[in-house]
Amino acid sequence: MQQVDERILEHLAEDGWASPQTMVSDSRFERMKVSRGHIRERCEELARRELIAPIYSDMYEITTEGLAYLRGDLDAGHLPRWPIG
Questions:
Q1: Which domains does the chain have, with CATH numbers?
Q2: Do residues 8 and 65 make contact, with C-beta atoms less than 8 angstroms apart?
Q3: For a Cys-Cys bond, which of 29, 39, 46, 51 suits 20, CB 3.0-4.6 Å?
Q4: 19 to each of 3, 40, 55, 80, how far by Cα in Å?
Q5: What is the rounded (10 degree) CA torsion for 48, 49, 55, 60?
Q6: Contacts of 9 (CB under 8 A, 6+ apart)
Q7: pLDDT tens per residue across span 29-46
Q8: Gap between the Cα atoms of 63 and 25, Å rounded
Q9: Residue 20 contacts by C-beta under 8 Å, 6 or more apart in sequence?
Q10: Is residue 81 predicted with pLDDT exceeding 70?
């Protein structure tokens, strides 16, 4: 897990759903100086690991597993890693 991954999960836990485009303007991402493309890549990885789920086009929401990770009830090292493509 990267620091940006935790910020994505926190953002989705607070806002319910978002796209990389809306996330990049959030102050927690602006301070990290990450691009929308990087957030999109991390969202795709978090979705493969089932911590977030796509809901429409480029929109994501946090899953039960993602919430459990934020609470400290789930070790992300034990989550599935699906091959790209």
A1: 3-77 (1.10.10.10)
A2: no
A3: 39
A4: 18, 8, 10, 23
A5: -110
A6: 46, 51, 52, 62, 66, 69, 70
A7: 878 889 999 999 999 999
A8: 22
A9: 36, 37, 39, 40, 43, 58
A10: no
